[in-house]
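User: Quick sanity check before I run a bigger batch. Here is a single chain. Can you write out its predicted 3D structure?
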Amino acid sequence: MPTIENKQSTDALRAKSAIGAMFVGAFGGAWIGAWSYLSMPGNLLALAAVAACTAALLAYAIGRFRRYRSALEGEKDSPEKRRTDRLFHIVNTGQWVLMIIGGNVLANLGLSAWIVPCIMLIVGLHFLPLAYIFSRRPQYVLGVLLSAFALGYPFLLPGGPNDPRGCLGAGLILWSYAAFALTVTPAARRS
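Assistant: Done. Predicted structure follows.
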């Protein structure tokens, strides 16, 4: 029989999953919006559909967060939590720095077409340390899928690294993870 403490812990994980789903869902919408813009220029209906789907996903994630956020308020500010937060910010900052550096290096080498796959790869790889930091096994899967897609699509799709379907694939991977994070009860950390 679940104890109050276990329920509190599970509810806190649900709230955290909802936060992650908000970010992943929003970025997934941005990738799919880029695909729509690049593959159907001027089609405002397609962009509106992407925006509506993104908004629906975010609304569901916000609702789920609000439902379980009280469990987060009960968490203590501990050295472990501060360490986890600090590592999260380091990984996230590192991701943005690497994207800027990678994009500039590729542009200066005349390889601008490879900026999108490079960014996609960096985003995918950044989920691997986050999976470790937050003890979230599904984020390993997300990181590996997005990284493998970034490495493979330029050679598999006819448009190479400029193929807009690369953006669609990245967005669908991110949206799928967001939907998973919102529907599956996260497992509590084992001590």
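The mean pLDDT is 91.

User: Great, the batch can go ahead then.
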